[in-house]
Amino acid sequence: MQRVSGHRQKMEVFTLIFPALFWLTVFFAIPLLSIVVYSFLKKGLYGVLVWEFNLENYARFLDPLYFKVFGRSFAVAVLTTLGCLVIGYPLAAWLATRPTRFQGILLMLLMIPFWTNFLVRTYAWIVLLAREGFINTALMSLGVINEPLGMLYTQPAVIVGLVYGWVTDMVLPIYATMVGLDRSLLEAAQDLYANDLKTFTRVVLPLTMPGIVAGSILVFIPSMGAYVTPDLLGGGKVDMIGNLVQRQFGSAQDWPFGSAISCVLMAIMVIGTLIYFRISGGRER
Amino acid sequence: MAESIPAVELEHVTKRFGNVVAVNDVTLRIAEGEFFSLLGPSGCGKTTTLRMIAGFEMPTAGVVRIRGQEMGETPPFKRPVNTVFQSYALFPHLTVAQNVAFGLEMQKVPRKEIKQRVAEALEMVRLPQMANRKPKQLSGGQRQRIALARALVNRPQVLLLDEPLGALDLKLRKAMQLELKALQSQVGITFIYVTHDQEEALTMSDRIAVMNEGRVYQVGTPREIYERPNSRFVADFIGETNFLTGRVEEVRGEQAVVLVDGTVRVVGTLTGPVSRGQEVTVAIRPEKLRLRPTGEVQGRVEELIYIGTDTRYVIRLTERSRLTVRTQNVGIGDSQRFRQGERVGLEWNDESALVLVE
């Protein structure tokens, strides 16, 4: 009896986890593993994969050219994260302090633009930033400037596009910590002689830090690997890792090298995140 | 008391939230060093009153003074008062010692003095060993004491307490009541204490203000409030009371004869001016009534409940009115002196029956 029911239980457990397991294997584990495997292969003629183990793809990174691309991506990702924080934090604070019945509607309004296709939204920025675009036309007709500003196809344009694309990912986690913030703590700070600024720096900021960190990770990682935005708004002049990877899989037909870049990027992200959790986990004790 | 400046003074203070009048024309004078309670059911305006003293709410009308200083729109962080919050509101990201030091740091007290005063404050609430813990590592009672230490370390002129014992279990609450009272006389700071627990207010306070629907009904010592309630609400809210309704038949100086339900005459002490024929309520506490084999006022024993220390009798007085009588079981046979269904006489001292107009 015991063994039969034990067996049945095992079957049940397997049946229950099978869909998730299947999904993860097919859509996550297999693609990921194949990328790792590719990164150790050799590129043959016309992009054919040559099954021969080598580390050359990784060695190519030592080229300062790729270092520079990595550095630029890092700088763009950091600035994008800061930009999202500067816009997202006050926005999240404002949302969290609205009457509860309006908060759902306001959050919805925040998300609606993101139902539109990402490409369309990025092209919209071209319309705004171009030489004969909306901003230049408006400024010139107002007499603020005499000739159009060269805004499009610059690094700032890429950052603006990325900030726009990822700001909700910053707002939502911060909003969640803000909503969970016990209002009586703010009153307690005020009661204990803290003015508004001190209440913010000593109580609000430390208590919403988990949201800031979560939001920053959520913005930093996709910004670092972005390729559509730098392609469209950078016009090929702002080369980021994403573009590099895309080129290897596209025009360059060098899948092994593209895979190696992806693996390095992934390793950096994972290590960075682990270090963060180590530090913050250590602080809790 | 009238000569010295009160610690806190409220003059015709009103607070409206939209159409709701939370506090309605409240005037109070709270003396230096007093343990003063604001007592009333939830929604009576006691917490709003406290929050106006703390500065979290500004009065719609009227004046709040702290030691003679008009507060006006002064923000909380500029008022010489500290608050112990109902939920304690300890900062979860700071240790116990950092929590207690918070107010001193904000006031830019020198580091050395902060260290010393924090240690003293933790000593005072008998939790010096908890300095490096986080609030979530403490029990409810310990958190309560840290909240107290965090407020008192600033040596405020007035300490405001918003139902600080509400979240504790009964036994701990009783112990904390005595501890708080002892602490208050030790530090000599004026305490303003908000509670809905009448027993708590009676135990701890020098004076109590009983509030209902935004108004202060009565201010007095616990004895005055219990023995001489000025209204039906106060008599009903504090302790247990029998109410009889009737008309005034005759006024004799401080007393009146009231005809209850058109059949029974009772004599009671006046709490305000009445005239003949006026409809009034007579309030008598159950323990002030005595049962006799016979007497001028008679009733029938309807129910008899033995509760150890006392016996409770429910006496049918008239068709519409019943009285609860509480007698202490001094001798073993006391609970068997009267039987169910028996006719008995009722006696009381004239000053125990109060004629209430409101």
Write up this protein.
Chain A is mainly α. Chain A has helices spanning 2-38, 56-59, 64-96, 100-111, 118-129, 134-141, 155-179, 183-191, 196-224, 228-234, 241-249, 255-284; strands spanning 42-43, 49-50. Chain A has one domain (56-284): MetI-like fold. In chain A, a hairpin with a 5-residue loop joins strand 1 (42-43) and strand 2 (49-50). The longest helix of chain A is centred in the first third of the chain and has 37 residues, at 2-38. Helix content of chain B is 23%, strand content 35%. Chain B contains eight helices and 20 strands. In chain B, the strands form four sheets. Chain B has a six-stranded mixed β-sheet with strand order 6-7-8-3-9-10, sandwiched between helices. In chain B, a hairpin with a 2-residue loop joins strand 1 (8-17) and strand 2. In chain B, helix 2 (96-106) packs across helix 3 (111-124) and helix 2 (96-106) packs parallel to helix 4 (140-152). Chain B is elongated and about 75 Å long. The chains are: A mainly alpha (285), B alpha+beta (358). The A-B interface holds A 182, 184-185, 187-195, 198, 202-203, 206-207 and B 54-56, 75-78, 81-83, 85-87, 89-93, 102-103, 106-107, 150-151, 154.
State the helical fraction of chain B. Answer: 10-25%
Write the CATH architecture name of chain A: Orthogonal Bundle
- Which regions of chain B contain 5 or more consecutive residues with pLDDT less than 50? none
Largest sheet of chain A: 2 strands, antiparallel
What is the number of helices of chain A? 12
Question: Class of chain A, according to the CATH hierarchy?
Answer: Mainly Alpha
The ordered string of helix (H) and strand (E) elements of chain B is: EEEHEEEHHHEHEHEEHHEEEEEEEEEE
Per DSSP, the total helix count of chain B is: 8
Shape of chain B: elongated
Q: Kindly report the spatial arrangement of strands forming the biggest sheet of chain B.
A: 6-7-8-3-9-10
| Ends apart, CA distance between termini of chain B | 29 Å
Distance between the termini of chain A: 47 Å
